[in-house]
Amino acid sequence: MAEFLINDDELRGLKGKAVIVTGGSSGIGQATVELLLSLGARVINADLQEPAKQPESSAAGEYAFVKTNVTIWTDLVAMFKKTKGLYGRIDSVFANAGLGPRADFLSMEVDDNGDLKEPNYDVIDVSLKGLMNTCTLALYHIRQQADGGSIVLCGSTTGLQRLRAVDYSTAKHGVIGFGRSLTTLTKAAQLPVRVNTLAPTWTDSSVLPNLRGMMEQIGVEIQPASAVARAAALLMADASRHGNLLHVACGRYKEIDDAVLLPAFDTIKGDYPGEDDVLERLLAVMAGGQA
């Protein structure tokens, strides 16, 4: 599992590409929008709120904001149609929109009847279901292009750990699982769509209020959103990358699925066949083929 650097030359191929970034008005999304524009890409920022400061298209990149609630299917459908209308195609989609922790699973709060109130599932709706719907529409549009395109999912290292922010951790575990599964599905269906996932650690964003200031108080380094944006751009630009899970920590990059997670599971399962191998054979039997 070797660390690697991302060179500017590796990102040049994004010039003129049409890219959708959900949640592009702040944090990682905003940094990605700005980077893509500097590389000459044509970018749709799909967010509920416009950014506080409009991005600069310093390399003649094109930019449009489309107000989008990723939890509403019709909003997403309209946003994808708008992108196709403006740019004629969709080369990459960065499913990035998300929320910080909200739910309290130890709550003692009750309603007027004295019954425990249901937990808040906004994080699941936005960060997981919204991401899955975004990717579903991305697959629908990109697969219709002969040369295909790419999808990048914004996961988190919290999807690889035990974390007391239960709703956030659950969503990010789901994102990583969704990305890994989509990788297998698109390969099996022979679709011209690459799927890769990011797993950044603590990043300067709005996931918690005044995050940078609090991190300074406790003496823990926090990476700039631009470090994660470079990883997202690399996954869009590098046509050889499919099925990567990139760990991003303080501007250091490592691929960890092929390098760590899959080999680790091979040692756990031993000689027993992998579940996807078994599923492939079962589907063949169900279709009347040979196992």
UniProtKB/TrEMBL annotation:
Superkingdom field: Eukaryota
A Pfam family matched in the record: adh_short
UniProt keyword list: Oxidoreductase
Similarity field: Belongs to the short-chain dehydrogenases/reductases (SDR) family.
Name of the protein: SDR family oxidoreductase
Organism: Apiospora phragmitis
Phylogenetic classification of the source organism: Eukaryota, Fungi, Dikarya, Ascomycota, Pezizomycotina
